[in-house]
């Protein structure tokens, strides 16, 4: 019998292989477990929703968002971009609270970033005094609870600043007192919206010039000037529109009335206290992130940059920070999210943010589920937006591997 015939005979003599049971297949078992877990989550959510609706109906508690169209009946001491009155609706009140939260969060993020970068670099300074002062700032800010810092700043503004009648005249048209900061603003003019559009166009021009400068630097090795051209574009375009529009210079200057200043614009003590607390507290954490990011760059990079004749400032700006950003950005995103969510502590010092407006609306309407759901949805949307932008920026600066 040949070898081929023997192999055929051996194959016929072997018993047929049995199929693997479905419960022993890893992929099938994983799918079954996922379906069961998802089904359990859906069933639990359905039970909670049904139980909530039954309890609300048993207690004759209204549900739905129809109260948004009802008159709010309460005043809000400070609003952003919206002229609000007590006779307006709850929906408009929520919009004011949301805009107030966004205003203090965005300004706080910008200021905290600037202070954090400066303090983080200062901690690495070769000057002993500068490094120690920066270290003291970081340790103090990071180890005192934010709520206590808010109380401190609010108390400092309330007790250390002079009364309204004796307000500090910081500069012409700018006054600081217990009532907050009052400052002059331009009188409304038709050219102002066009100046705003020119400013946006200037931002676009700055982006294009920056890209051109980086491309030219990569091609020639010569770094074009950035500061003066970017400032000229950003300021020059609105200034040109202002000149074409007649160069209006009329200002609405605050003047002291019977009890307070009238005219101009103002920033309340609550907003100042909240902004200072959020800014200095978050900047302490950002300073440590910046310091750690710079130290994570191999020291050989610094030595190589110094060897080719770069000054210390150029080494930091052109070599260390661009590489450190890849380490700095992810934890910085978390601090931005923390700052935004920590703004909800504004209710402790009376700043009318989203939480404060929602609490007042909840007490008046009794619709707790709707008010809490709105707060959760707003903070979730803000946090996801910040995360999306920071993740996009992190991918943009990431090293491209071949």
Summary keywords:
66% helix; 3 domains; mainly alpha; amino-acid transport; four-stranded antiparallel beta sheet; two-stranded antiparallel sheet; membrane; 402 residues; MetI-like fold; globular
Which ranges are low-confidence, i.e. pLDDT below 50, for 5 or more consecutive residues? none
CATH topology of the largest domain: MetI-like fold
SSE string, helices as H and strands as E: HHHHHEEEEHHEEEEHHHHH
How many helices in DSSP terms?
A: 12
The beta-strand count equals 8
Please write the CATH class name of the largest domain.
Mainly Alpha
Protein model, in words:
The structure is a single chain. This protein is mainly alpha-helical. It folds into three domains: 3-58; 94-185 and 267-397, Orthogonal Bundle (MetI-like fold), CATH 1.10.3720.10; 188-249. 66% of the residues lie in helices and 6% in strands. It has helices at 3-13, 26-58, 90-123, 128-143, 146-160, 191-220, 227-244, 269-296, 299-307, 312-342, 354-365, 368-397; strands spanning 168-171, 174-177, 180-183, 185-186, 251-252, 255-256, 261-262, 265-267. The strands form three sheets. A four-stranded antiparallel β-sheet has the order 1-2-3-8. A two-stranded antiparallel sheet has the order 4-5. A two-stranded antiparallel sheet has the order 6-7. A hairpin with a 2-residue loop joins strand 2 (174-177) and strand 3. Helix 6 (191-220) packs antiparallel against helix 7 (227-244). The mean pLDDT is 87. Its main location: membrane. It is a multi-pass membrane protein. Belongs to the binding-protein-dependent transport system permease family. HisMQ subfamily. Residues 1-21 are annotated as: Disordered.
């Amino acid at each position: 019998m040949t070898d081929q015939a023997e192999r055929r005979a051996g194959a016929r003599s072997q018993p047929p292989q049995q199929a693997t049971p479905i419960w022993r297949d890893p992929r099938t078992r994983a799918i079954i477990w996922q379906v069961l877990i998802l089904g359990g989550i859906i069933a639990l959510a359905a039970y909670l929703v049904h139980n909530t609706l039954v309890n609300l109906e048993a207690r004759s508690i209204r549900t739905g968002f129809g109260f948004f169209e009802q008159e709010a009946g309460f005043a809000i001491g400070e609003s952003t971009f919206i002229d609000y009155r007590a006779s307006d609706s709850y929906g408009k009140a929520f919009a004011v609270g949301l805009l107030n939260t966004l205003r203090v969060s965005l300004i706080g993020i910008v200021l905290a970033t600037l202070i954090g970068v400066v303090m983080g670099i200062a901690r690495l300074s070769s000057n002993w005094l500068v490094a120690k002062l920066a270290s003291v700032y970081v340790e103090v800010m990071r180890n005192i609870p934010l709520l206590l810092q808010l109380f401190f700043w609010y108390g400092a503004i309330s007790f250390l600043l002079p009364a309204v009648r004796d307000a500090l005249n910081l500069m012409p048209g700018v006054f600081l007192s217990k009532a907050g900061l009052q400052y002059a603003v331009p009188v409304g003019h038709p050219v102002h919206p066009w100046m705003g559009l020119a400013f946006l166009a200037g931002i676009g021009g700055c982006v294009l010039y920056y890209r051109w400068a980086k491309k030219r630097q990569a091609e020639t090795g010569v770094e074009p000037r950035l500061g003066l051209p970017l400032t000229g574009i950003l300021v020059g375009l609105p200034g040109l529109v202002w000149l074409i529009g007649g160069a209006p210079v009329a200002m609405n200057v605050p003047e002291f009335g019977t009890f307070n200043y009238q005219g101009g614009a103002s920033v309340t003590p609550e907003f100042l206290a909240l902004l200072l607390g959020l800014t200095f507290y978050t900047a302490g954490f950002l300073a440590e992130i910046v310091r750690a990011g710079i130290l994570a760059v191999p020291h050989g990079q610094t030595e190589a940059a110094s060897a080719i004749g770069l000054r210390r400032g150029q080494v930091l700006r052109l070599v260390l920070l661009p590489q450190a950003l890849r380490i700095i950005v992810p934890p910085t995103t978390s601090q931005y999210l923390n700052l935004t969510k920590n703004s909800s502590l504004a209710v402790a010092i009376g700043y009318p943010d989203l939480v404060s407006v929602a609490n007042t609306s909840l007490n008046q309407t009794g619709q707790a589920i709707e008010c809490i759901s709105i707060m959760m949805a707003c903070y979730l949307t803000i946090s996801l937006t910040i995360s999306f932008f920071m993740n996009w920026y992190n991918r943009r600066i990431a090293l491209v591997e071949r």
